[in-house]
């Protein structure tokens, strides 16, 4: 009966119990928007985004079984599109000689580019936090990895589809109409399983991954119904994807490319091509400075969020302090190649001490024209401060 009490101190501090390691954290986020909103109904210029999360890791050397659990609870957030809770990770994993089986909720990342995660397709995203797709929901999946001499062949089955949530029109960073309906094209309402087969390898100075995806696209298209309501259209998708990174002493070359066949929208292709060049030890210091350039092209004609990248370029710079606090500063701009519109972003992160980290993010949308995708967010400039305390 006393075994039950071991959980109590773990609520307040990281601890190890047997083969379990437990790390709780509190994250407090606050976002201040530009006070001149695009729509009169958007009256709130400040948003809270506090989160509690807990990481539990289990490893048994005797059985070879590992487990990882990460529930995330959002407390009193002021944006309706943020999930109140999410099980981002809750999976079991076991390795058998040269292959590995994982089953449960998990978060997967594929890709190499900085300004767009084009080939990253497994998890549903949370655009209210980050429209570049860096914030994601957990995905129920069964994954089998087969380790070859030169790489890893992975088969992923995703039996459960999660729709994307959008902010209401009276909230900031939102569409002008509420998305109140969903339509599924190519797959029935009850058949939403997706499959992906991916191979990743290292060839001398190249890291290469390629995959085929068959299932439902998690990025919807939009239309306005005859009743004037917003409708999200999730289409069946067959997609080939490729990501490659070339590494040399001073620069990284990056490529992400896809070819799609949507049941709603037909064939299209897209790529992100660019690189990052490094200047080590700037002005005799321990800091490294890098310059980034990435070119985007996307031929999808439907009104999906990927239209932001239909013909644009990203230029930026990253400064890394190379200190024990992992301090970095990223400044960049996404520029529409066919006009004057620019979306500027800045990201700063550091550790204040061993248990407290600080992240600051700022966005500014400049000269957005009505025909350009980011026009919807033209007055949603913001600065966000996020503190994470590991208990």
Concise description?
With 391 residues, the chain is mostly beta strands. The chain contains one helix and 22 strands.
What labels would you give this structure?
391 residues, mainly beta, 18-stranded antiparallel beta barrel, 1 helix, 55% strand, globular, disordered N terminus
Portion in strands: over 45%
Which structural class matches the secondary elements?
Answer: mainly beta
Give me the Rg, rounded: 22 Å
User: Sheet bearing the most strands, described?
Assistant: 18 strands, antiparallel, barrel
Shape: globular
Distance, first to last CA = 26 Å
- Tell me the series of helices and strands, N- to C-terminal: HEEEEEEEEEEEEEEEEEEEEEE
Share of helix, binned: under 10%
Query: How many beta strands in the DSSP annotation?
Result: 22
Mean pLDDT score, rounded? 90
Helical segment count: 1
Structural summary, described in words:
By secondary structure, the protein is mainly β. Helices cover 1% and strands 55% of the residues. A hairpin with a 3-residue loop joins strand 15 and strand 16. The longest helix is centred in the first third of the chain and has 4 residues. The N terminus is likely disordered.
List the helices and strands and how they pair.
Layout: H1 7-10, E1 15-17, E2 20-33, E3 46-48, E4 51-59, E5 65-74, E6 85-96, E7 99-106, E8 139-147, E9 151-158, E10 179-185, E11 194-203, E12 206-216, E13 221-224, E14 230-247, E15 251-262, E16 266-279, E17 288-298, E18 311-320, E19 328-336, E20 342-353, E21 356-366, E22 382-390
Parallel strand pairs: 10-14
Antiparallel strand pairs: 1-2, 2-3, 2-4, 2-22, 4-5, 5-6, 6-7, 7-8, 8-9, 9-11, 11-12, 12-14, 13-14, 14-15, 15-16, 16-17, 17-18, 18-19, 19-20, 20-21, 21-22
